[in-house]
Design goal:
The complex is a heterodimer of chains A (275) and B (277).
Chain A lengths: L1 H40 L5 H5 L8 H31 L4 H14 L3 H16 L4 H25 L3 H9 L4 H12 L1 H17 L2 H4 L19 H9 L4 H34 L1
Helix pairs in contact in A: 1-12, 3-6, 3-9, 3-11, 4-6, 5-6, 6-9, 7-8, 9-12, 11-12
Chain B lengths: L3 H8 L18 E10 L2 E11 L4 E5 L6 H7 L10 E9 L2 E2 L7 H7 E4 L11 H11 L8 H11 L3 H4 L12 H13 L5 E5 L7 H14 L4 E5 L3 H7 L2 E6 L2 E7 H6 L4 H7 L5
Parallel strand pairs in B: 3-8, 3-9, 6-7, 7-8
Antiparallel strand pairs in B: 1-2, 1-4, 4-5, 9-10
Helix pairs in contact in B: 4-5, 4-7, 5-7, 7-8
The chains are: A mainly alpha (275), B alpha/beta (277).
């Protein structure tokens, strides 16, 4: 009996060690990427680098372009995605919703290059030029299914007793969803939006086919535009060490942009929770 | 102790004549007439009729799964919210069938409040907002004096003295018994005409239960209360009328004293005396 207890104790330790080792293995690539980007990118950071155009060795237009892309895409994608998610979760007990849900699940895993080529075919060819708006539409196609899905999932986690409590007070379904269910799911919604923002901020393939990059600051929604992923992609293909270094700098800036949006949204959604 | 199925066989429950009731009782606050209800193919209620008088407490007792909660949820049209549910028959509120086509379920639920089995205060709202929620969610006018209504409702729910200094604390931060009284305050803030309670004490300890029971008796001064319970002692303590349900049928309905002291039906007697349940 003593032996078998010792063996059980050993198994307990053994599986703990296996799990801990797997975590280390999973974290190593992540940490090495971060380390690489920070060590190579950090020396680049300066006011000129962050604000000047490419001719003066900066990535100002790319930062501006990425922020415009994130902003405009979120403007389209967040309301559409959240409202679709609400529909699927709260009113989605029918055949139509089931098929929408199935298509949406496929769309979340759609290769982004195909989204890019679709936007190219529909918008770029029609307008006869690469344009910022084509990029926004392509990224919105990527963003909407992600937000729809995360919204639906986080609303489904809200216990039904909360909905019933509101309905039993004589509140309408929509009012219940808006004032009771959505606030309870706030942190889940924020996570979904952040995931989607992080995803579109780093997308490169659709941008090659839509906004196509630019050396100048924002010219208009119907003109070509710069973006950080494009900057990273273009510079890293160059032979010049200076341009390659700028690519690393742009990579670090992209990470910082996503990180700061993440922190900002967390702070906002948390402070609202308290009141 | 006999098993439930053998009891059913002995009394031949399926042959029990349900109390067919067609006459409308003019003094009733609510009246259920020949209510049948289903979940999918499964029939939960079989021709149940019941009268709820104003300013009384009506208890519905019976073993688990006998359909008492489903029956209660027919009184404020909450039953129909469950997918694949069906219901036939009439339920009158002040003589008008709440299942009539022109009746709006949302309006009915405002007039017939409900307290659930598990306390379910809104987790994102503080105590004050929880009580005010009913008014806000149903579009109260801007000049409504919420402070007074919140205070009065919490007082009526005998919770005011315990929370008056913590109105800004989350509704979920107080104890289970307090949360349940908060839910009662939330229901009475709308000044409904009837309050339905679905086993309101089953998640509470004896002291909290005693408080709720005392409150139920006080509530009947202003409202008609229908309380579902599987606790017979509770039914005998708080109610004026008691309905005993078994396998989806109403076996016996009478004044509580008669049900507990002199039941007419053998099955009721067996349940009351604890022979099965």
């Amino acid at each position: 009996m003593i032996n078998s207890y010792g063996f059980r104790k050993f198994k307990n330790r053994f599986f703990f060690i296996i799990c801990a080792m797997c975590v280390v293995i999973a974290v190593v690539p992540l940490a090495s990427i971060l380390f690489e980007v920070v060590t190579r990118g950090a020396p680049q950071l300066s006011l000129t680098f962050l604000t000047a155009t490419a001719s003066r060795g900066g990535i100002g237009p790319a930062i501006q372009g990425t922020l415009i892309l994130i902003g405009l895409t979120s403007l389209i994608g967040v309301p559409l995605g959240v409202l679709s998610g609400i529909y699927l979760s709260e009113f989605g007990n029918n055949k139509y919703a089931q098929s929408v849900r199935a298509i949406n699940n496929i769309l979340t895993q759609f290769p982004s290059i195909i989204v890019g080529i679709t936007a190219y075919g529909i918008i770029v060819i029609t307008l006869r030029s690469f344009s910022a708006i084509a990029g926004v539409v392509a990224l919105a196609f990527i963003m909407i299914p992600i937000i729809t899905r995360t919204t639906e999932e986080s609303l489904k986690l809200i216990p039904n007793s909360i909905r019933e409590a509101s309905l039993a007070l004589g509140a309408h379904k929509w009012r219940t969803t808006l004032s009771v269910v959505l606030p309870s799911a706030k942190s889940g919604l924020a996570t979904g939006v952040l995931l989607a923002v992080a995803r579109i901020a780093g997308e490169t393939a659709p941008l090659i086919l839509t906004i196509a990059g630019s050396r100048y600051f924002f010219q208009g929604l119907n003109k070509q535009m710069a973006a950080l992923p494009l900057e990273i992609w273009k510079n890293s293909l160059q032979s010049s060490p200076t341009l390659q270094a700028q690519g690393w700098g742009a990579a670090l800036v992209l990470i910082l942009v996503v990180l700061s949006i993440n922190i900002a949204v967390r702070l906002v959604s948390r402070s609202r929770m308290k009141t | 102790m006999m098993t439930t199925s053998s009891i059913a066989k002995e009394e031949n429950i399926s042959q029990l004549k349900p109390l067919q009731q067609e006459t409308i009782c003019p003094t009733a606050k609510m009246q259920a007439i020949n209510v049948d209800a289903w979940f999918g193919q499964k029939q939960i209620l079989k021709t149940v009729s019941l009268t709820v008088k104003p300013n009384t407490v009506t208890a519905i007792i019976g073993p688990s799964g006998c359909g008492k909660s489903t029956f209660l949820r027919c009184f404020n049209r909450m039953h129909e919210l469950v997918p694949n549910s069906k219901m036939t028959g009439k339920i009158l509120l002040d003589g008008k069938n709440i299942y009539d086509r022109q009746m709006d379920p949302v309006q009915i639920r405002r007039r017939v409040g409900m307290v659930f089995q598990k306390p379910n205060p809104f987790p994102t709202m503080n105590i004050y907002d929880n009580v005010a929620a009913g008014l806000r969610l149903t579009g109260a006018k801007k000049d409504t004096n919420l402070d007074d209504i919140v205070k009065r409702s919490l007082e009526q729910a005998t919770l005011w003295d315990e929370v008056k200094d913590d109105l800004k604390k989350p509704g979920t931060s107080i104890s289970g018994g307090q949360q349940q009284r908060l839910c009662i305050a939330r229901a009475i803030a709308l000044q409904p005409e009837v309050i339905l309670m679905d086993e309101p004490c089953s998640a509470l300890d004896p002291i909290a239960t005693a408080k709720i029971e005392k409150l139920v008796i006080e509530l009947k001064q202003d409202y008609a209360v229908v309380i579902v319970t599987h606790n017979m002692q509770q039914a005998s303590r708080v109610s004026d009328y008691t309905a005993f349900m078994y396998l989806g049928e109403l076996v016996e309905f009478d004044e509580t004293s008669k049900i507990f002291e002199n039941p007419k039906n053998k099955l009721t007697e067996k349940y009351i005396t604890g022979e099965f349940g």
